[in-house]
Design goal:
Distance between the termini: 38 Å
Number of helices: 8
Radius of gyration: 18 Å
Shape: globular
Largest sheet: 2 strands, antiparallel
Order of helices and strands: HHHHHEEHHH
Helix content: over 70%
Length: 273
């Protein structure tokens, strides 16, 4: 991690447009692979998202011990994917050993860096968040294996993508009222992002009853809220870096989907989708 550099602001165009374009490409590829290739396509999409997030997060945040951090992220992704695919029924409990061992490995990795070990705590925090994120993306594999899981998965990806896209486009034009100085994010974009996710969920719902509408609205609002808030958090990372990088749009596009994946799984298990 590097010290805050909010005084080195990127233009709103650079902050939002590449991320918005990548959201469209990422969501389109993930949905296309899932629909056209089934389980194999879903696995390919999740693995691609995990690998690109690992590389982008290490670059975007400037984690010290980058090579080891990438190795830990890839290993955690492989373990999490196996935990979601190998059991007869996917259970999130199987991710706990992956996270526990990953945390211990991250501590050892940072402590064994050559002296003077600058930014040790910040780098450790960055690695732990990375491990949580790749494990969260693996939950999409479990989501696809439950009853009507493909429908729920596609709806979740599209709802998150809609929230992110609307949030970026609105904040490109009107980042007001400003959430934080130096971060081009506003409350209007946050609210409209959630509304976009709700609209997608309603359009893709099964049935026309009031119950199905309420279920879809809850699903969309929860995913849209989580994705929109995480997108604001990703914008803090972009503002901190203060300079354009290929990694920043990747973090902005993939990290919110990772945060929303466990929420989508929990809601879908309880019949909300």
């Amino acid at each position: 991690m590097t010290p805050a550099a909010l005084d080195q602001e990127l233009s709103r165009r650079v902050h939002h447009l590449p991320a918005a374009a990548l959201v469209v490409l990422t969501a389109g590829a993930a949905v296309g692979l899932t629909v056209e290739a089934g389980d194999a396509g879903r696995l390919a999409a999740v693995v691609a998202l995990q690998v690109v997030l690992v590389a982008a997060w290490v670059v975007a945040t400037g984690i010290r011990g980058a090579v080891g951090s990438v190795a830990l992220g890839v290993a955690a992704a492989a373990g999490a994917d196996a935990a979601m695919l190998l059991p007869e029924r996917p259970e999130l409990d199987w991710l706990l050993p992956v996270l526990g061992l990953g945390f211990l490995a991250a501590v050892v990795h940072q402590m064994t860096r050559p002296a003077p070990r600058l930014y040790l705590v910040a780098s450790l925090a960055g690695v732990v968040l990375l491990l949580c994120s790749v494990c969260a993306l693996a939950v999409l594999l479990g989501l696809g294996r439950i009853d009507d899981g493909e429908q729920a998965l596609v709806t979740a990806v599209l709802a998150v993508a809609a929230a992110l896209l609307v949030g970026h486009l609105v904040d490109l034009v009107l980042p007001r009222p400003e959430i934080a100085p130096g971060v081009p994010r506003g409350l209007v974009g946050l609210v409209l992002a959630v509304a976009a996710a709700v609209a997608v969920a309603l359009l893709r719902r099964d049935g026309t009853t009031l119950v199905s509408a309420l279920s879809a609205s809850t699903f969309g609002a929860a995913l849209g809220g989580v994705a929109a808030l995480m997108a604001v958090g990703a914008s803090y990372v972009v503002a901190e870096r203060g300079q354009a990088s290929w990694a920043l749009p990747v973090v902005q596009a993939v990290l919110p989907l990772a945060a929303a994946a466990p929420i989508a799984y929990a809601l879908a298990l309880n019949g909300l989708r």
